[in-house]
Design a protein that fits this description.
By secondary structure, the protein is α/β, with parallel strands linked by helices. The protein has helices spanning about 15-30, 40-45, 65-80, 100-110, 115-130, 140-145, 150-170, 190-195, 200-210, 220-230, 255-269, and strands spanning about 10, 30-35, 55-60, 85, 135, 175-180, 240-245. About 50% of the residues lie in helices and about 15% in strands. It has a 7-stranded parallel sheet with strand order 3-2-1-4-5-6-7, sandwiched between helices. Helix 1 packs across helix 10, helix 3 runs parallel beside helix 5 (about 115-130) and helix 9 packs antiparallel against helix 11. Bound molecules: nicotinamide-adenine-dinucleotide (NAD). Nicotinamide-adenine-dinucleotide binds near residues 13, 15, 139, 184 and 189.
């Protein structure tokens, strides 16, 4: 059954990584997908998989006029928007906060948070008409924190607060607002982090180990949950931050994992 048949889904950061996996699953579930990205290269790469009735728009979500145009273009084309999935995000830099520059801080907040403000500001009227929903891609670190990523974690903590507050504000329009919170997911974002660390496989075994289920997944695990959350099957769910984390937040794994991981790293060096 196509649970998203004919729905118009506006997904930011849909041209690669978790967003692209979500786009694939939305398409398979019958939706018309509008892929938003600031990266012409990855947009071009996914163009052949997204012919009509899908649509691709080059847009920087941190720039208000870009988002205003992208929403208008979507409404001109389809006459409706059913779902806004705020997925685009950046994680750079990997530093404690006192080393984070003004520019790095501003870029993180402008993309990860202000992007949500922009899509809501320009898209909310369309969602009122369809009684649609908003889905935010948060991160487990918004709840539990992360070493060397304080500014990034702060943007995700803020997304969690936004998700709950927006759920309250828009419930009266029957608009649901939820978030998914992955732990690690193998995408170019993580691959770049792995490259930065140059630790001889240590990052890979660390990332496998932090998940209680024993492996660091790919984006399909997140996308399956996203399909559910934006579908009518989740019609009574709003304001939820849904971990898609293989249990990474459970128990005392971090301490054990550090020990295991050090042993593994020592064995390989
Ligand atoms: N990969 C992980 O381990 C992980 C874990 C938890 C949460 N997340 C979150 O999942 C989301 C997707 O991450 P990913 O790993 O797929 O990243 P990615 O870097 O592979 O893809 C990011 C996407 O966002 C787009 N994007 C970035 N800045 C943009 C901007 N200013 N305007 C428009 N588009 C922009 C990129 O073009 C790309 O399509 C992010 O919000 C990230 O914080 C990722």
């Amino acid at each position: 059954m196509q649970v998203l048949k004919d729905k118009v889904i506006f997904i930011t950061g849909g041209s690669r990584g978790i967003g692209l996996e979500c786009a694939h699953k939305y398409k398979k579930a019958g939706a018309r997908v509008v892929i938003i990205s600031n990266d012409p290269k990855s947009l071009d790469k996914c163009r052949k998989d997204y012919p009509e009735p899908h649509h691709l728009i080059l847009c920087d979500i941190s720039v208000a006029s870009d988002v205003e145009h992208a929403i208008a273009e979507t409404l001109n084309k389809y006459g409706r928007i059913d779902v806004i999935h705020n997925n685009a995000g950046i994680a750079h830099p990997s530093k404690p906060i006192h080393e984070t520059t003004d520019e790095e801080w501003t870029a993180l907040f402008n993309v990860n948070l202000k992007g949500v403000y922009h899509t809501t500001k320009f898209g909310i009227e369309a969602l009122k008409v369809t009684q649609g929903c908003v889905l935010n891609t948060s991160s487990l670190v918004g709840e539990i924190g992360q070493e060397d990523h304080a500014a990034y974690a702060a943007t995700k903590g803020a997304i969690n607060a936004l998700t709950k507050s927006m759920a309250l504000d828009y419930a009266k329009y029957k608009i649901r607002v939820n978030a998914v919170a992955p732990a690690g997911v193998w995408t170019e974002m993580l691959e770049e982090w792995e490259k930065e660390r140059q630790d001889n496989g240590g990052t890979r075994s660390y990332l496998d180990g932090i998940h209680a289920l024993g492996y660091c997944p790919e984006g399909d695990v997140v996308a399956d949950v996203c399909v559910f959350l934006v579908s009518a099957q989740a019609r009574f769910i709003t304001g939820v931050i849904m971990p898609v984390s293989g249990g990474a937040e459970l128990g005392y794994r971090r301490i054990d994992q550090k020990k295991d991981n050090n042993e593994k790293i020592n064995m390989t060096t």
